[in-house]
Request: fold
Amino acid sequence: MIDVSQIVRDPDFAQNYEVIRQTGEWNAGRFEVTGTKTLNYRGAVQPTDKDTLQQLPENDRTSVSVSFYCSSPNVFYMTQESDSKDDESQVIFDRIKWRGNQYKIIKVLDWSRNGYQIAVGVEQ
Reply:
């Protein structure tokens, strides 16, 4: 495998952004959110390309979507605790703050074998 994590962090490509992560504890088999913490990440930030958009559950996207890259040991989180796509309260996901806007992660592409991950975020 080729490790491309150095490219993700390269100053010619990388930008600073904040990851806002929900914190909490497990109670009776469910994760209860009690707060948030802010993490400082650095990685490439790019418009989401058409090939990545085709991998998303919703084909037509009307909001702005951006792809955020990070390299190990940093990771993005998005979990689905319920089969119901309508009940967002059951989904625990990171949010990203970049250039004054906040993005909700809707998909994480795990390329950790190559040293990086991609989070697709939509502007809120």
Summary: The helical segments are 5-9, 50-53. The mean pLDDT is 83. The chain has one domain: 5-123. The longest strand covers residues 30-47.
